[in-house]
């Protein structure tokens, strides 16, 4: 049985971008704010 953490780790290795990482890119481009990313990724 695969655990959530194992699936996430493998997906990242294969090029998946996490919601938090994508959000931080958008913050750096001025598209959104850090507060919005924190709200959207609290459980991430």
Could you state the oligomeric state of the chains shown?
Answer: single chain
**How would you classify the helix and strand content by structural class?**
mainly alpha
Number of strands: 0
Which blocks of ≥5 consecutive residues have pLDDT under 50?
none
Task: Based on the model shown, name its key terms.
about 60% helix, mainly alpha, about 45 residues, elongated
How do the helices and strands line up, and which of them pair or pack?
Elements: H1 4-13, H2 19-28, H3 34-40
Helix pairs in contact: 2-3
Structure commentary:
With 44 residues, this protein is an all-alpha fold. The longest helix has 10 residues, at 4-13. It has three helices and no strands. Helix content is 61%, strand content 0%. It starts with a helix and ends with a helix. 5% of the residues are buried.
Task: Provide a short characterization of the protein structure.
With 44 residues, the protein is an all-alpha fold.
């Amino acid at each position: 049985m695969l655990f959530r953490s194992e699936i996430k780790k493998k997906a990242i290795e294969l090029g998946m971008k996490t919601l938090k990482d994508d959000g931080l890119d958008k913050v750096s481009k001025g598209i959104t704010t850090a507060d919005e990313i924190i709200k959207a990724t609290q459980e991430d």
